[in-house]
Amino acid sequence: MKVTFASARLKKCFEDSARLQREVDPSWVRTMMKQMAALTAAENFGDFLSLRLWHPEPLEGSESRWSLRISANARLIIELDATNDTVVICTAVEVKGVCDYHGGKNNWYIQ
Fold first, then answer.
1. In terms of Cα–Cα distance, which of 26, 1, 5, 2 is closest to 78?
2. Reduced to 3 DSSP states, what percent helix, strand and coil does the chain have, rounded to the nearest 5?
3. How far apart are alpha carbons 31 and 68 in whole angstroms?
4. N or C: which end of the chain has fewer CB within 10 A?
């Protein structure tokens, strides 16, 4: 699957794990790198969902934004290049960042 990033800063962080450790909790980096590898290796989002890892779930109020669990409160936010009808066959995602969206507000760690 094709993975892109919402910003150049975000792309630089995911290309350099040392930099990523400075931006977010260092204990999250291994999980985040595994998520990125799985997204890249999957042929489409349906294949990724079949892994049944990281509790992927659509974000409330958006048909194309999904979250992947990093820790109890932190989530990797991705946006699918798809509509509700084509989520399973989606072949491109954009990483939006890492946030804690619990409690009715978005607290972005990196964006």
1. 5
2. 40, 25, 35
3. 10
4. C
Write out the H or E segment, with its range, that includes residue 49. helix 45-50
What is the pTM (predicted TM-score) of this model? 0.91
Dihedral through CA 6, CA 94, CA 25, CA 99, nearest 10?
80
Q: How far apart are the first and last CA of the chain?
A: 21
Q: What is the mean pLDDT of residues 63-70?
A: 91
Contact by Cβ (8 Å): 35, 57? no
Question: Does residue 102 carry a pLDDT above 80?
Answer: no
Half-sphere exposure of 2 (CA within 13 A, CB side): 8
